[in-house]
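note to self: the first set is below, dont mix up w the second
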Amino acid sequence: MLARVAFAHPPAASPATSTVALAAALALACLGLACSDDGGQSSADGGDEIDTGNAESAESSEGEGTGDSGTEGGLSCEEDPAQTTIQTTYGPVAGGPSEVEGIVRFSNIPYAAPPVGALRFAFPQAPEPWTEPRDATSFGPECVQLAVSGSDPTTTGDEDCLQLNLWSPEACEGADRPVMVFIHGGGNAVGSAVNPLYDGAILAASQGAVVVTLNYRLGALGWYAPPDLGVPSNNALRDQIFALEWVHDNIARFGGDPGQVMIFGESAGAVNTCALVGSPAAAGLFRAAIVQSGTCDQRGLASIQDMSETLEDSLGCQGDDAIACLQATPAAEIMFAEPNGYPEVAGIGRGWGPAVDGDVLPQTTLEALSAGEVDAAFVVGSNRDETFRDTPSDLSEAQYEALVAASFSIYADEVLAAYPVADYDSPSAAWASLTTDLKFICNARRAAEAAAEGGTPSWRYQFSYDDYTVLPGVEQLAFHGLELVYLFGNFATLFEGFEYQPNAGDLEIAATLQDAWGAFAAGEDFPGPVYQAGVDPYLELDVPTGEGQGLRTQQCDFWAQWQ
């Protein structure tokens, strides 16, 4: 069974669930979002009232816990080129060797206070400082989330989860290594930075870079934002900004260059990455971004507010006391009550995630890119077969038509004309092509076009490699999330329960991806042609690597009329 590359599975269907509904849940609700099923114990911490204190929030770089890009607190490379105890702005952390020779790992470093009690639904806050070295040799928990495997619903993780991990080839002052900060996917409802897929040791070694992964609040705990109750919106995005501020203030002590930071994310992590690109609150915290299989067109806040009110109704937490009620509710109960922990089926909608709020996101990133208001080099891409692996292989033509009708309503006939079953090997292939184009390939074109319009240096890629050695019964596809196996070089995560041995093609595409991402982090151009609207050039990431123009032009022109 494939695992940890497309990860997500919808909640188990009841016996009464129709085949069409199940197909919709698989192909739309999941779309292969990178979800994790590892983690610790859930927390039931509650509280009485909310504290949105701005003084130490992600809105400010002043106050306790922030610094001056880390010019104090670490030994120089001449004094000690491979330290394992580093003084951060909050206190010392003691890391240790990773599984890759020459790479030091620091895990479970708090970048914010535990968001519990009065801090549930609040801005991220600086953690309490400490004086004794904190053990940073073991990974911490993932953030609270629904478990997405097995027939019995449960939760995993802990609310005290705002930590980051980093891998460094030279943990000392003055090394000035490029910094690669990864934001995990999972529909903004599941996933974590401690997934073995995202272990950064191999990438750090191959690129001589400092690699960082981070947790952020998930589901309602990260995105709940009701109207008129004084709750800040986009808190999970603010978590990520707060983590980037920690990187800016501390990374020099670990051998990184705070002026040479690249952020990159996949799936929901790519959605968040692109939101960071468009957020003035994140300006100056990174110089480059790579958006891997995500969208840059954030929705309005009203949809998040509607979901938040539905959550309140589900838990009986209403009126002026809603916040206090929700703060006193165990985290697991909130997760079970979430109205849309996974994206909606009808209309191919979206669940929790970034929303334009007039504050941390004053406009969509597409608008910011088009207006030339983004000061970061930009790469956006998608995989050739994004949704194919998660689309049921036995859809009938009637079921395909029913899915299209349920998703596109009065436009269904036009969609069916654009994606006729006769043009594909099967109704399943037609549906997979439709959803891959709409959710990924054409969204990548929209973002690249917006960047080009605003004068932001930008590139586009398509990942097409599928020459991995397959197991019996496994179809060979360049599916959603596959590139992460090669980018991080953790081949053991490709097949669950099977120690995969990479072939020559695997090793070549891994080197190609690692070198491309690493060079971009180091300030070089991304390989391939600079993007030009109308020409639509892109880099084809395959063995061998190539270049192309006009990726799925007819299909993307079709979707563009409604976007």
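second set (the one i keep forgetting abt)
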Amino acid sequence: MTMNTERPPGLGELLRYVGELVDVGASRRYRDLGLSYRPRYTPILRAILAGKTTVTEIVSHSRLTQGAVSQTVALMVADGILAREGTGDGRKSSLRLTERGQALLASLRPHWQATFAAIEALETEIGHPLRQILAKAADALERKGFAARLERAAIEQESPADHAD
């Protein structure tokens, strides 16, 4: 997997590429460990471990979209990792780990410790706290969306002297 270097890549390209490199590496490691597991399951499991039991709670905890969480939860239910239970209000369902999910979790814990060690080593190698930078970028984009930032940049390009702060 190589990136086209004829022109500088944009932010979206770099984010997707880095994400892909991380996911491919994690998937390979899961296979090497003999685990039938998808990297996209990790934020869901981490949210459940933090006590989140509904899709809405997982969305808030993980910063993933509701669509992404719902799709991933459906895969995890189909794979026998999660089970849905009614909450009694008729609208929501609660999620819980199945026995298979609990056994998988026990196998994953050492891998997750190694993952965080690998991320820390990567951050040391590049000389930047990547997770912290990405979290700050996410916070800033939640405060002021990228569409608003693009609109502002376009206006400033049209008449830079009129819009100086």
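remember for set 2: The first strand starts at residue 82 and ends at 86.
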